[in-house]
Structure formats: C-alpha cells, structure tokens
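SEVERITY: medium
COMPONENT: batch folding queue
REPORTER: lab tech (J.R.)

DESCRIPTION
The queue accepted two submissions in a row. Attaching both inputs and their returned structure tokens so the on-call engineer can compare them side by side.

ATTACHMENT 1
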Amino acid sequence: MGLAQRVEQNDIYLARRVMQRARNIDPTNQYIQKELTRLTNKINNQPGKAQTSTSTEQNAKPSVKQAAMAELNNKRGLHLFTKPWFVLLLVPFILFSFYQLVWAAPRFESRAQLIIQQPDGMATMDPSMALLSGLGVGGNTTADTEIAKAYIHSEDLLNYLQTHNNLKEHYQNGGDVFSRLSSNASIEDLLKYYKDHTTIEIDEASGVIKILVQGFTPEFANTLTQTIVNRAEWYINSIGHQLADAQLKFIRLEHAKVEQRLRDAQKSTLAFQQKNNLLDPEAEGLALQQITYGLEGQIATKSAQLKGLRSTMTEKAPQVVMLASELSALKTQLELERDRLSTQQGTNSNIKNNGTSVSEVLAQFSDLKIELELALKGYTSSEVSLDKARIEAYRQLKYLVVVESATLPQDNKYPATLYNILLFAVLQLMLFGIGKIVLATVKELR
C-alpha cells in the first residue's frame, strides 16, 4: 500500500496494479478495497486515456509484478535473508551455537595436586665435608617446581605416556572433527596438543603444583593424570638419588685420599724405625739422656772423693790411684754418650751409625709422628662422614608428596558453551561494527 501511494503521482495505473496485488494477498482488508476503488474511479474519470491506459498497464506489468513480490516478501520476512547483517552475523552465530550446543564433544578434566619437599642434608654430614662438597644446602623450591613443570610438558614424558597410555590414539579417535587430533599429526603436533590439554598451575606462596588434564572420557582423564603424577614422582625422586650419589661419590673420593695419606704416614714411620733400628726413638733418646745425666752425677761424686783423698794422701796412694782411674773411665764414658747424642760418632747397638745424630733422628721421628697423628684424625673424621653419607644415600634428598590424588570427573568442564557463545557474539559485533565504520569512511572519501 505504501508503494502504491508513492507511485500514484507518476503512474496511476501502476499504483492500481499494486493495490490489486495487495487485495489478492489480503482480500478482507477494507482499506485496500477502498483505495483500489478510488484509483479505478480516478482512472475512469480521465477522458481519452483508455488506449493509453491499456498500453501503460501492459508495459507496467513487470514492474507491478516485481513490486508485488517485494511487498509479499516484506510481509513474509524473507527480505531479511538478503541483508548483510544476516549473512555476516546471524548465520555464523547460529552455526557456532549449533556446534557448541549439539556437536562439540565434551571434555572431562581430572585434577591432582603435588608438593616437592627437600630435607636438610647438612644434618647428616660432617661440616668440613659439607663445605668442601657444596652439597647438603637447602634447595630452591621455586626451581624445583619449575623443573617438575618442565618435565610434565616435556617430550620425554609424552613418549612415556604414548607407550603406556596410547595417548595419540585417544586424541585422534575421541571428540568431534574440530576438537580431535589430526590423523597425520607429527610428534610436534602431538606435543602441542598435549600441552594445550594439560595445564600446570603453581602456587608461589605454598609451592603446591596443580595438574589439570583433559580427556574425552572421565576414565581416561583420571588414568592419564595418575600416570603423570607417578612419573613426575619418579623423576623428582631420581633427581634426589642423583644428588645423593654425587654426594657419596665425592666423600668416597675424599675418604680414599685421607686413607692413602694415613697409609703413607704409617709406611714412612715404619721405614724410619727399620732404617734406624729403633722401636721408639723417643724412648731411646730419653734413655741416652738419663745415662748421660747419671754419668755426670757419678763424675761429680768421684771428683769430690778424689779431692778429699788427695788432701790426706799422696798421688801414688792405692786409693787415690784407683779413684782417679775410675774418674777417668767415667769421663771417657761421658764423652762417648755425649758423642752419641750429638754427632753419633760412637757405636750403638740400637741406633745405626750412619752419621746422623740422635737429636736429628728424634726430630725426624717427631715430624713423622705428627704427620701420622694428623692423618689418623683425618681418617677418623672421614670415616664418620662416610658412614653418614651412606645413610644419606638411601634417603630422598628431594621427594614429591601427593596433596590430592587424581580425581575422577563426573561432569564435563569443556567446552564452556555459554561463555564461548557470548564471546563469539561479542567478537562478531565488534568486527561487524568495525567493518561498517570502514565502509562508511570509504564511501565518504569517495
């Protein structure tokens, strides 16, 4: 009806044809009937127009038909299907919503929580050995958690999961055509897909590691999570054993050096004793000194007695001669003993006469004895550290504690249908608005 009113001033015949089409569509409409009667009377009141009317009506048939069809389409709402916003917005939105609500395969998420602990190895190691080795110092918890995260997302663990859980087959056969893994996926594609479906969250404050694993079935998600936890525990424990082995290896090497030092000191001391034919050079030297001191005392006594006899007797008196002879013998023996202590020019049944004085022998023996005592103390300390290191080697320097075991999900967490649909709609509107602005700007510039 609006179209008939618009074309009435230019072509009244076309306007009447439009009204006739409108009446055919809605025969009960009184307003259309009234307008059609008015247009017919108006045409009939125009003289000399009959021939022209017939010709005009015939020429206007296609236009009237098109206008009537357009009016019909407007009534039915079919014109909406040709609008750009319908093609660019509504159709993709309907398709995406259908995929999210009907077609998209559900994905179940299993959860596990872990924490890494490390005992203080300083408690079981000798302080000197701990400082030398640089081991037994408390580790960095943040670094340990990052190591665990890197291993969980590593290709080594992926190969292990592929061997024990047939991961690739599950990713390729489960889900829908858009969410499953490609049938010709490479190892790099599989690793990327695995990382996208395995999330690691670390609480910096507590050091708790949360593992979130997605699967197309609840059972597989639970099994895969448990396998990851077990393998991560093995890996962390292996690191602890490697550190313990390194610590034990270092202490064993140090102990071997200390033990060899003790053997060398013992051999040197024994060789020195055999060379000088002495069981205990210190005792031998002390005995020589006592002999010398005794001779000096006897000489002093005999000298006093000789002076007393000479004051009352002549030099040729038997007592004087005998006492003088004893005194001379004592002095000779004293010289010999002093010579043995200083230059060792005399003879000794115990100490070999090799041109070395007893004092020098005692000095050398004292050095060997000190070296032997130091080696023995070092060996004792090393034995203690080695025993403690053996115990430490069977402990876990780093171990993993399961805070929460792998859960068995009952409801699918993905896809997040409502969130995805709303996000898709917002992105559509943003892109459509940007496109409209760009087109309007281009038209304005033209």
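ATTACHMENT 2
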Amino acid sequence: MTEPIAEVLADRQVQRVRAGAGLRLELAGAVTVLIDSDFRLLAAGGVEHFYPQLGTGVSGGLTVLTGSRLTGASVSPAGGLELSFDSGRRLVVPPDTTEHPWQVIGPDGPLFTAEPGGYLTG
C-alpha cells in the first residue's frame, strides 16, 4: 500500500535548496521535491511569486527553507501541491496543465508525480 504524501514528507528536514530552471528541495532521507511550475511562497510578511521558466534563483524566503522541517503536505484534487514548514512558510504550487509540474522522488525513483487533473504515485 502506498503511503500518503503527508506521511512520506512528514518531519523531513530541508538539507539543500537549489534553483535555476526549476526548484529542487533536497530533504533528509534521500527524498527530493522537484518543482518545474510557477509557485508561491507564503509567509506572515506576504507572498513571493517564483517563475522557474524564467530562471529562478535561491533568493528571498527560499533561503530560509534550508534547515527547516516539513510540517504538512497536501495535494488538491486538481493536482496542486502545498508544503508547510516549521518556519511558518508555505510553498504552494497551483494546479498546472503541463506534464509533471512537480514530483517527489525517493532513492528508488518517483514517489509522487503531478499530472493534469490529479497526481500519480510512482
């Protein structure tokens, strides 16, 4: 039986954040979250918008994610992703009609892959 995304990502620490043509969150336990779609980072002070296709760098609130822990993860029925961190920030990837706007990858390959209209487990 496949574990829900919230259980797979629960309490994992962000070890490294990389950005460029997409966002890469390298987590403890050899788990990586890849985001190739536009996303928002929400904090008490406001919202930052990131557009990976324009060459996102690790800036602003993204720099605070290194060392923080995931406190929640959910997928909307339409395939959007929301990650919550102990820093109080939330990373939100809205539903996207492109192929694989986000993925969660483990040491043996994809665990969760977004598809238009929902998500698939690997």
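NOTES FROM REPORTER
The chain has one domain: 5-115.
No errors were logged for either attachment.
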